[in-house]
Design brief:
- This protein has a 5-stranded antiparallel sheet with strand order 17-19-25-22-23, with no helix packed on it. A 4-stranded antiparallel sheet has the order 2-1-11-10, with no helix packed on it.
- With about 400 residues, the chain is mostly beta strands.
- The chain has 2 domains: about 180 residues, no CATH class; about 190 residues.
- It is about 10% helix and about 35% strand.
- The protein is built from 2 helices and 27 strands.
- Strand 5 and strand 6 form a beta hairpin.
């Protein structure tokens, strides 16, 4: 369970299914499918969407569908859960089935039992009746279709609609009106998907919360010149940027502190900059980016636009940054690279996005560092869903 309330595949979590078919996590956070990408998450202060059910064999369904997907978060080799695959290369996302493993089988609805979801796992509990055979067949059907690549330039809405139609055709029998399963936890078997390369893609285009597909006026090289730090993308009710195109999530964030010069903080989910703290961002660059231009873009939504992230900004918001050498989890303030290539500076304001620097893409690892001015403290949770916040690398 991530600290911001998003469920991932790090391990088992406790969930509760109420009599209205609402799903809540162990903190009583309501579970929903957030954003255009329909990410499964349970958020503080939110009511669960209705439509969740557990079949007799323990299959978790939403509106009759057992099909879910996992896609990499870019942090700690973790995976988030989605109702449909994110755009990306073959093997970027993996289809999974969610299974409850600590409920008692019954033909009567129970509203107070606590369930455990074996995320991305299958529990075999043996043949007991025809209902369970039907559920097992629904499970098998959901895994017969292999994932085929969804072109990131295609219409995501039509992909989503066809996916739901397929769900309804193959999975409609899996919802057994909340029959409670009895599943031996020892029989839960993890799948063995090979984690794909953590390649994600973006360009600094405005986004619309109500539109599931990227807007046609997305800013990219063909339609709009991308400007340097002093130029920003002004926004009001839209995100400063939509992640689209060829982009990279930082695969290592290392905030080092001058007040603890020999302390190695390891990788972090947060970026932090102040007069004593600077953060290094490693980006994995695939060989296909060779010959392209790589730019680092900082997207900074308004606090009200964030659903699964947050930030704290004090002072002027003045920052410095630049390309530097690669860092590791063992990097400390004393061992961190000192030299900066093409140092830039700027003042960050919520509701805008900034291009900090641009250089030739070098396959391997490219690193950018940010540090704060003397009166700046800025900390944010790096997150691309649903309104991206933080530092990203764009290949053009």
């Amino acid at each position: 369970m991530l600290r911001i309330g998003q469920s991932n595949l790090e391990g088992e979590s406790q969930f509760h299914l109420d009599e209205n078919h609402g799903l809540y996590d162990e903190n009583r956070f309501g579970c929903i499918l957030a954003g255009w990408e329909e990410q499964f998450q349970c958020d503080h202060g939110k009511s669960s969407w209705n439509g969740w059910s557990i079949g007799f064999e323990g299959l978790i369904t939403f509106q009759g569908s057992v099909r879910f997907w996992t896609c990499p978060t870019g942090d700690h080799e973790g995976y988030n859960i989605y109702k449909r695959p994110l755009p990306g290369p073959d093997g970027y996302c993996h289809q999974v089935t969610l299974v409850a493993n600590s409920c008692h089988a019954t033909h009567h609805r129970e509203s107070s039992s606590t369930k455990t979801i074996c995320q991305g796992r299958k529990c075999d509990t043996g043949d007991r009746d025809s209902d369970r055979d039907s559920d097992r067949e629904s499970y098998r059907e959901s895994h017969r279709e292999s994932y085929h690549k969804s072109d990131h330039k295609s219409d995501h809405k039509s992909d989503h609609e066809s996916d739901r139609e397929s769900d309804r055709e193959s999975d409609h029998e899996s919802d057994r009106d909340s029959h409670m399963p009895s599943c031996n936890e020892d029989r839960c078997r993890k799948p063995v998907p090979t984690p794909p390369s953590h390649r994600v893609v973006c360009n600094g285009a405005p986004c619309r919360e109500s539109v599931p597909t990227p807007p046609s006026h997305a800013v990219h090289r063909k339609t709009h010149e991308t400007h340097e730090t002093h130029e920003t993308h002004k926004t009001h009710n839209t995100c400063p940027g939509r992640l689209r195109g060829d982009w990279e999530f930082p695969h290592l964030i290392v905030p080092v502190d001058a007040s603890k010069p020999d302390f190695a903080p390891g990788t972090s989910l947060f970026g932090t900059v102040s007069k004593t703290v600077k953060s290094y961002f490693n980006f994995d660059i695939p060989s296909k980016y060779a010959g392209k231009s790589c730019a680092v873009v900082f997207m900074f939504p308004q606090l009200s636009q964030l659903e699964t992230s947050s930030f704290e900004l004090k002072g002027s918001g003045h920052i410095f940054g630049g390309w530097t050498k690669e860092v590791s989890k063992e990097t400390t303030f004393n061992t961190a690279p000192e030299g900066l290539i093409s140092k830039v500076s700027g003042t960050l304001r919520p509701g805008e996005s900034y291009v900090f620097g641009r250089t030739q893409c070098r396959p391997g690892v490219m690193t950018f560092v940010m540090e704060g001015g003397s009166d700046t403290y800025f900390k944010w949770f790096q997150d691309f869903n649903p309104c991206p916040i933080g530092l990203y690398l764009i290949a053009e």
